[in-house]
Amino acid sequence: MDFLNAIVALSNFVLIPAIAYGSQLALGALGVTLIYGILRFSNFAHGDTMAFGAMVTILFTWWFQSMGINLGPLPTALLALPFGILGAAALMLATDRVVYRFYRRVKAKPIVFVMASIGVMFIMNGIVRFVVGPGDQRFADGARFIISARDFRDWSGLSEGLAIRTSQGITVITAVVVVAALFWFLNRTRTGKSMRAFSDNEDLALLSGINPERVVMITWFIVAALATIAGVLYGLDKSFKPFTYFQLLLPIFASAIVGGLGNPIGAIAGGFVIAFSEVMVTYAWKKVLGHLLPDSLAPDGLVQLLSTDYKFAVSFAILVVVLLFKPTGLFKGKSV
Amino acid sequence: MNVNWKNIGLFGLVALLILWTGMFQSWNSALLIINMGLVSAIMALGVNIQWGYAGLFNVGVMGFVALGGLAVVITSEAPVREAWAAGGPRLLAGLAFAVAVLAAAVALYRRMAAGRTRALALTALLVVGFFAYRAIFDPAVDAVEAVNPAATGYLGGLGLPVVLAWLVGGLLAAGVAWAIGKTALGLRSDYLAIATLGISEIVIAVLKNEEWLARGVKNVNGLDRPWPVPYEVDLQQSTEFVGWAAGWGFDPVITSSIVVKLAYAGLFIIVLAILMWMSQAALNSPWGRMMRAIRDNEVAAEAMGKDVTRRHLQVFILGSAVIGIAGAMMTTLDGLFTPGTYQPLRYTFLVWVMVIVGGSGSNWGSVLGGFVIWFFWVQVEPLGRWLMDVLTSGMADDSALRAHLIDSAAHMRLLTMGVILLLVLRFSPRGLIPEK
Fold first, then answer.
1. What pTM does this model have?
2. Do the Cβ atoms of A102 and B407 come within 8 Å?
């Protein structure tokens, strides 16, 4: 019986949150990795793109809520999501026009793109803070739980509860759908194939008549969609605060690099590696161990490897290990 | 000679702007701008050594600045004897043990043949080592932090003169730069950017949470001042000084704070002059030419037998050390160490804007950029608020939109910095004072 309790506690505090967080990171890392594959630079503005898309979604959510439109048990944000994607896409395409296209034409070094993306990051961050302010914004509505801890306890008779929040369920389902659609697009459609060709070998792709500007535009659109979805899911699951999205940049980059920059499958794997390590290292294992071990051996302390303030250190440590031993990532990334 | 006049003119313009601040606002704020401008100039110099000489993109300036600040606390503060007695030796033993475990892991990795046995042994060593380290370290931390937590609760420093701390700040920053450079240099240029971004966040997290080290978010106040800088209170109580100020018809309170700031400015100018002389000498030496050759064409430089990764590591460490020195100077100037106030926007990206606006690769450009951007950083906020006020003056006083816009004016800084960065990068990538 205790063994069951341990498993339930583990799922409740580690597995489910890590799966949800991992899906969010994977979606974010997919965006970073696509930009890296097609445009060949690390986009530092990605965290703030997520914030911007989420912000547009939030504004539409509030508008819908004020009109009394809702999805019943599902959060209204899902209804507003397409508008958020369109808003983010418009901004990304405009940025590409105004900023990045020039550097592509003069064939600037990748590091110049990175610097430009930092400028873009500032501007987006400024816009977001200007519009909704730097504070926390709540926009989640609908049912809070799919399974609540008490229902589970009543149903199973265990002492540990298992809660699955709606936002966690939605995160995982959305992520699966989005990833499936993305891979279908990249592997089955003509445009997707031309994108992969462009990413593999730019010269050959140009030679076979692929229009680079079109590829770039579609990439930005997809990235905007991925970033907005990731941003909204993260906001629903935790909360929306512009600064946390800037801080997400590190775990997202770590995910993309751990999986191998430029490799979409790697980005997904990397997202889960980072999320699971982060949650497991900062979780206090006292409860789980208390169920597993006999009373005499039960731990006194919290058995927490690192305090949650150091969760960024976890993704960073993994990043360093990967850079030291396998710079191309777990799945073969583009280049060192 | 033409270029030279232009440069002197640019510096003259900055001087005029600061004079204008002095005449129309107050001499105190003008001197504050000068002092922080000097510190910013040194930070920009450090970034320029990395970016301008070698093309290394360091997005973790904030971390190195904060390490400089830490150096001030651990060098100049008086040691807390009770805390040392409570857990000092054990704490140091814990840290030494952690280093030993890491060294053992490195040795193990080098000695054993690659394979599953090595991976297992390495993991086992690290896991066991980690728990042993925590067992030694944690009780010591608790003991140290329990010593009079309201006033101390940390180990204190070494009680050395604070000017030494500036050097220590450089050394600390250099040490961390070495570790980062070792991992991320020699790979794609983006990786260094990401690694430095990460380390700067972690440095701040450590400073905020490790209270035994520098009190964390409880801050350390009343840091020592370097030797010739007096305290305002002492000046105001000295009859000699008050008489002297009265003789000139000055208010003693204001004058005392101006004298203090002037003393700081003098010290900072000396440091800047030394660093500037060294940087210029390095830039014009064979070493400087080699660095530029590497920056402009790594492949060619490598073909000439230059060890590119090693040179990059060297210049990365040097630049970070300069940033660390500036960080220590800034904390000394503030007189307090507040880990909570380090923000990437202010300490990383602002310095980058300084370097790029000033002119990457040119030391004088960085100094100019440091002053110009700092001046506008200080002055833009009131300007932005005033602008918002004027722009929204047509709206009703109780309009929610107007209140929102005026509240948001503070965030205009981000926007302005981004726009400046993009504009300079696009239209004048060589900056105000281009590299020759």
1. 0.89
2. no
